[in-house]
Amino acid sequence: MTALTLSTAAASGLRADAIVVGVAKGTASRSGDLVIAPGAEAVDTAYDGKLAGLLETLGASGAEGEVTKLPAPSGFKAPLVVAVGLGAVPEKDGSFGAEALRRAAGAAARALTGTKKAAFALPVADAGAVAAVAEGALLGAYSFDAYKETAPSKNASKAKNAKAPLAEVTLLGAKPRDKAHKAAAERAIAVTEELNRARDLINTPPNDLDPEAFAAVAQTAAKEHDIKVTVLDEKALAKGGYGGILGVGAGSAATPRLVQLSYTSPKATKHLAFVGKGITYDSGGISLKPAGHNETMKCDMSGAAAVFAAVVAAARLGLEVNITGWLALAENMPSGSATRPGDVLRMYSGKTVEVLNTDAEGRLVLADALAKASEDKPDAIVDVATLTGAMMLALGNRTFGIMANDDAFRSAVHEAAEESGEPAWPMPLPDHLRKGMDSPTADIANMGERYGGGLVAGLFLKEFVGEGITWAHLDIAGPAFNEGGPFGYTPKGGTGTAVRTLVRLAERAASGDLG
What we know:
Blueprint: E1 3-7, E2 18-25, E3 34-36, H1 41-46, H2 51-57, E4 67-71, E5 80-88, H3 98-111, E6 117-121, H4 127-140, E7 168-172, H5 179-203, H6 211-224, E8 228-232, H7 234-240, H8 243-249, E9 257-263, E10 271-282, H9 302-317, E11 322-332, E12 344-346, E13 352-354, H10 362-374, E14 380-385, H11 389-395, E15 400-404, H12 407-420, E16 424-426, E17 444-445, H13 453-462, E18 470-475, E19 481-482, E20 493-494, H14 499-510
Parallel strand pairs: 1-7, 2-5, 2-6, 6-7, 10-11, 10-14, 13-17, 14-18, 15-16
Antiparallel strand pairs: 2-3, 4-5, 8-9, 9-11, 12-13, 15-18, 19-20
């Protein structure tokens, strides 16, 4: 993991491989001018106040995520200055928002792959800015190379051309003795380390991460962070009547699991339950996915990875809230023993479900976990799932949808996402779409109307939430796995979407603000 330190040292005297500064597009009143962001004053002075002009000569515009490198000024111990674009200077007060700082720090960290140490001289006027720059840099420095023979940590002779991620980040202007700055940095480290662990799980090939292996990872982490863990294997699931999880996993040689992670605080007054979809590989089952849709289906456990990471992060932060995490783990495969379209499953809640499409499997494992989580009567339940392609069509690849049975709670979850820098959008649960899931054979079918499919899936899940319990559903199908190029602090592959939202929601619950 990339190390993080805070420092009030002068940029000129710091031994590092690079100094990172922020630049921005001027306001409307200064159209065309490149602006040097706060934090880089000493660097600009060392260039005789001509840093903006030099960068403009090199083609820098201040556009978000743009990176420009130039030799450091005379007298600096670091040989390189890296200017990263923050976008337009805010017209209102000139201060940059947290997400702009995160993205800039992430872009700079990615550009410094292969570098041992970089000092970030970005705006850190308060603890919020310290947190944002720290998060962006630590997330941007992420790399997944466990399966590459040329990985820097593996074979030295073959790794000579490989570049390791940025090893150390120093935040200049952040005060190591300031309680708020220190707390912000410590929170950033805990959250980003667990988020990056979620990314690792998402990126791990399914032949190495089946339900049993995922459960073992959770058990190890739980032991390390004093989290109570219970794992139900296929025999316990059968005894308990978990027909949804068993039905999805019936076609695979890798047997399903339901993992319960319980973090408790002696000062807690609220209890949250987080439920994650953990399909470690989704072939679609008998309703096989078409060619071109299978290659990234190792990411179908992103919801469970987010829940796992959020519970561990909450434990590391010592949040004053009780959290129970549920990981509904199965592998969805076609075989002679697989659930067929037309089969009826009896769920943990006692309801029966007619399976019309075995590729609508995530809602089946979540239904069992939601019913089980409801038995504890938590103050709120949040489930997280890469659930529907329909949500991707609605919101694109960078935004997840939020549905809920309570408008105030849906707003609270949305606010938590916005505060965390995770794009999300509130979605409705129209009652008229429920009729499409009526079944002549069972209590409900796992498919309904084609249009509004993401909302239909949400309505299905709502059926399995205990009466009177506040609940929200996050469909993260779009942003959970980035198939395009990296941007800001987001890598190619698993992103760890929803981890920060869940942690922020837990912090809000600890302070009594659940909407």
